[in-house]
Amino acid sequence: MLKFLFITILILWLIRIIARFLLPLIFQRVVNKAQQQFGQQFQQQYQYQRPQQPKEKDKIHIDHIPEKQKPQRGQQGGEFVDFEEIK
After folding, report:
1. Using 50, 70 and 90 to split pLDDT, how confident is the model at 25?
2. What is the pLDDT confidence band of residue 54, given thresholds at 50, 70 and 90?
3. Which end of the chain lies in a sparser environment, N or C, as judged by fewer CB atoms within 10 Å?
């Protein structure tokens, strides 16, 4: 029984040491592969986009921005309700 426990603990300890070195390498490979796939998808989307037509230099385009409305004097705090104290 003691021999079985010793071997089990030794195997688990070795797995822990090996995992400490292998898991970062495996994780790094997975991350690099995901980055490559993302880069390829980005390039494909960028290639299929239509190039924008150049704007004409002599024309001016102004977007109208409406002025902010000032709050009216009577509407600042809502409605006023008369209060009567009842005893």
Report:
1. very high
2. low
3. C
